[in-house]
Write a structure and sequence with these properties.
Radius of gyration: 20 Å
Structural class: mainly alpha
Largest sheet: 2 strands, antiparallel
Strand content: 5-15%
Shape: flat
Number of domains: 1
Length: 119
């Protein structure tokens, strides 16, 4: 499920609709800087999640998981999951706001061509 979600966002959103890479939904402003969700928050959530996850797995292989890593593994999820999902959904929504030029493309697999030749 997680891998399919990431594939959908990377290929189905960011690759297909490049304007979605700069889309941002402002949430609040502090000291003249606007903070919101979009690609930076998405990459932050994905990055922190992976670093914590694989640090946990590595320490588990060594036989002892330090408490800070154990805490981060099961606590940061509460913040990172909603922020990551909302960033993914916002970027998917932002595709609808940009105009895409859709062309009809037909892709044939090599085995289909070989099958047609033998019939």
């Amino acid at each position: 499920m997680q891998v399919s979600s990431r594939l959908m966002v990377v290929w189905g959103v960011l690759y297909v609709a490049p304007p979605s890479r700069t889309a941002a939904l402002p949430l609040f402003e502090h000291a003249g800087v606007e903070y919101g969700i979009g690609l930076p928050s998405l990459l932050l959530c994905w990055g922190v999640t992976e670093v914590v996850r694989y640090s946990f797995y590595f320490c588990k292989l060594l036989g002892a998981v330090p408490y800070p890593i154990l805490w981060a593994r099961y606590t940061l999820f509460l913040v990172l999951y909603p922020l990551g999902v909302s960033s993914e959904l916002f970027l998917a929504y932002s595709v609808g706001r940009c105009r895409l030029r859709v062309t009809k493309t037909v892709l044939k697999a090599p085995m289909v061509s070989a099958l047609e030749a033998t019939i």
